[in-house]
Write a structure and sequence with these properties.
Helix content is 26%, strand content 23%. The protein is an alpha/beta fold. It is globular, with a radius of gyration of 23 Å.
């Protein structure tokens, strides 16, 4: 019997339509400027670390600034660390403990502010929540009691902030043989947030691994996603790659920022296989976004203003093992296809300036269905020379004009 390919539920389709999101690692650790794992890796003493809460003060417009960075980048959703492995919560824990932003000098429910700012900006809020806890003694001493605390914590997030895009869990890899009672946790989420994406990070060593049946997307942490074979799957699963701007997730003394070219290419490679791209920033302890991080995100936003339609609407169509170029088909208009061209040269100009060739060697796209009417660059509408024979399309991509270089350039194909 032929195995069927499952159809995506609408909320998963909606998630894939978002395409590009911003991850935010922000918590008490942000005050130290040493990364989000500082407490654990640097073996800091518990009591002095907990006392940082007395100095945790987020400026009045801190959350607004964070959301503004995502908006400028063209991100359609934000996944914010409501609680990281240090156990400190940015939301009102409603009496579960006092280790939260409400009981710091900030004195505010930052998740409430986050959701409100996202809605103003027409951005979908997602909640990251740790399942691992370095601070709570129950994690090692009474795991069942800890799981009850985790369950109650997540239920607060599911019931106090209206509809959310999803929950992104991280930490199950810390106890790979434990019974995390995921079924109970996820059933509760479905009761309160039936259309929320449920994602549980499988970590660096298990990228793309499929978890329990309630999961809606597999994760690729700092690794390029692969095309998913969904044949015979019980349900349709999406994919998401999470990436950092530098070497840390939380703010750190870190100058090793990734080139814009690499980030644009990773975004495009994700969409080639239908996965979302979740790019992380690490705000400072007061909620301000460092200039370098904000500038990188804003620059990505400039690229998205030109080619964003192909990123949001494009779905896997044609890709090839022997070439980097690929094609996406528009999810809403099957007569529109997007061709992604990497490492494009420039038009020849003055003989004293090295610009490349007038046109690239013809790029072939095999398996092309439908008769092509026109091919134009999305940035300037310039027609591209092409020839079509059967299901093979060849395109002589014209190089960039002097004064332009976009890292990845996208052409829009119109079919008759």
């Amino acid at each position: 019997m032929e195995k069927k390919v499952p159809v995506a539920a609408q909320y998963i389709k909606d998630f894939e339509q978002l395409g590009f999101g911003m991850f935010v690692h922000f918590g008490m650790y942000s005050m130290l400027n040493k990364g989000e794992w500082a407490y654990h890796i640097l073996k800091l003493e518990k009591e002095p670390y907990l006392n940082l809460q007395q100095s945790f003060e987020v400026k009045a417009d801190g959350i607004q600034e964070i959301v503004g960075v995502a908006k400028a980048a063209g991100c359609k959703y934000i996944t914010l660390t409501t609680r990281h492995h240090e156990g400190f919560s940015l939301y009102d824990t409603c009496g579960l403990n006092e280790y939260d932003a409400l009981h710091s000098p900030t004195g505010r429910d930052l998740i409430k502010e986050f959701v409100e700012e996202c809605r103003k900006a027409e951005i979908v809020p997602f909640f990251y929540h740790t399942t691992l806890d370095w601070i709570d003694p129950r994690f090692e001493g009474d795991f069942d009691a800890y799981l009850k605390y985790l369950y109650d914590s997540v239920e607060i997030l599911c019931t106090r902030y209206g509809k959310i895009g999803g929950l992104w869990f991280d930490g199950n890899w810390s106890k790979p043989d434990a019974d995390w009672k995921e079924g109970e946790l996820y059933a509760m989420i479905r009761r309160h947030q039936p259309e929320a994406m449920i994602i549980n990070n499988t970590g660096l060593e298990h990228r793309g691994e499929v978890g329990v049946k309630e999961i809606d997307a597999v994760t690729f942490e700092r690794g390029m996603p692969h095309a998913m074979d969904r044949t015979g799957m019980e349900k349709y699963l999406s994919g998401e790659m999470c990436e950092t701007l530098c070497d840390h997730w939380g703010i750190a003394d870190d100058f090793n920022f990734k080139p814009i070219k690499q980030l644009i290419e990773e975004l495009c490679e994700c969409r080639k296989v239908g996965a979302n791209f979740l790019l992380n920033i690490g705000p400072a302890g007061d909620g301000s976004v460092p200039k370098m991080q904000a500038a990188i995100m804003e620059t990505l936003g400039e690229w998205m203003k030109i080619y964003g339609k192909a990123i949001y609407n494009g779905r896997p169509y044609l890709s090839y093992e022997d070439q980097r170029e690929f094609a996406l088909v528009d999810a809403f208009d099957p007569k529109t296809v997007y061709l992604f061209k990497f490492n494009l040269g420039k038009k020849s100009g003055n003989k004293h300036v090295s610009l490349g060739m007038d046109s690239e060697t013809a790029t072939f796209f095999k398996g092309f269905e439908g008769e092509v009417e026109s091919i134009q660059w999305m940035d300037n509408g310039e027609d591209q020379p092409f020839a079509q024979e059967g299901d093979t399309l060849s395109v002589d991509f014209i190089g960039y004009p002097y004064g332009q270089s976009h890292c990845v350039r996208v052409a829009e194909v119109k079919l008759k």
